[in-house]
Amino acid sequence: MLVYLSEWLSLIIRWFHVIAGVAWIGASFYFVWLDNNLREPPAWKKQKGIKGDLWAIHGGGFYEVAKYEVGPEQMPSDLHWFKWEAYSTLLSGLALLAVVYYMGNPGYLIDPSKVALSGAGAVAIGVGTLVAVVALYEALIRSPLARNGMAFGVVLYLILVAVAFGLYQVFAGRGAYIHVGAVIGTIMVGNVFLGIVPAQRALVNAVARGEKPGEEVVMLAQRAMLRSRHNNYLTLPVLFIMISNHYPMFYAHAHGWLALAAIGAITAYARHFFNLRNQGQFKPSILVVSALATVALIWAMAPSAPSTVATHSHGTAQTDGDSAAAAPSPVTGAEISQLLATHCQACHAAKPTSPAFQAPPAGIILDSLEHLKQHGDKVYQAAVATHYMPLGNMSGMSDEERSLLGRWLQENR
Ligand code: HEC
């Protein structure tokens, strides 16, 4: 019952998290777009201090948007800030991290074949990494490095790759990925909370006092610009990580951290094309390079072909009798049924006996050879090509058993 209720909890928080994230990223996409589409206003608007003008039609009505050079003469009584979208995305994200990864199935986080962490140890590493990396970022953005945007970008990228590498050594792939995502997301919300909103507040205060913004306000605004640019480049990678938990081919890959580093570089570079275009520079070569790099990544990550050299004899297969010694005896169905029962069915059954699951995970039931065949390719990926399954390998599935399963899947396509 507890598992059932916690599934509901995670569903509701996840739902909310996606809605908040859409509102946040959607608004920031909209404002980037707005800024890039402002046109020179007519003279009477310029006199009011308006520097850009935009007309739009949406939902059956005309909208007139104006952007001020500094601010309006008088503070409007209602000013929308767009900050709770970011904050609620972070809060719901942290809640989801706790429910799914810290209190949910330990197999998402702990992989005994990497490090046999305790539950509390894993949570400490996860939370500790999050706090440490965000603190490091905050220290760097206040340092002289912040004056060199390009160098800062490279340093930030290298830090994130190092975090991905480090976490990949201690956590199961999925847990490592989500923590990199959480680090990036928290940096982004920190940028809003600690940099962008304070700069806006200083500007609003100056306008409210009827003053021209002083040097300090301008400096705050400049630093906020850098933070905002980082958020712009981090958006696509963070969204990728958030959906990556549907794709074991990524996070369960032997070099999953490297694949993630490649995705980060490719998406940030592709984003660069759009940023340049918005500044009036058109460099399609960037998109071509990004596309070629993606093809190279697809090629580099491709699963190795099923190995056909696994000729070792295997324990229980005596029924095959006197087949020639040279050819490996075919794997029997009985062996595979036994293997499924030992290593898979606690979870992948219509009614799982594992206390962590109410329903078969990923909807995959492995209670018969027919069902196994039906999911053959996925099973091959999850349990043979990678060691992602059995989740956390609590039952201690051996390499021999994996190659046995691989051979059966090959022989019974
Ligand atoms: C402790 C529970 C548990 C055990 C034992 C287990 N699995 Fe899974 N399995 C899961 C969970 C949870 C998921 C969903 C994973 C996700 O969403 O990341 C899953 C997903 C899968 C998938 C789908 C992966 C995809 O491409 O989306 C396959 C295939 C699979 N398991 C095969 C197996 C096989 C084969 C075994 C036995 C050798 C096994 N599992 C043992 C919990 C388990």
TrEMBL record:
> Any stretches that span the bilayer, and where are they?
12-33, 84-103, 115-137, 149-171, 177-199, 233-250, 256-274, 286-302
Enumerate the Pfam families for this protein. Urate_ox_N
Give the keywords, sorted: Membrane, Transmembrane, Transmembrane helix
Q: What residue stretches are annotated with the Urate oxidase N-terminal domain? A: 4-302
Q: Where is this region: Disordered?
A: 309-328
Which residue stretches does the UniProt record annotate as biased composition, category Polar residues? 309-321
Instruction: Please tell me whether the keyword Ligase is annotated for this protein.
Output: no
GO molecular-function terms, A-Z: electron transfer activity; heme binding
Provide the protein name.
Urate oxidase N-terminal domain-containing protein
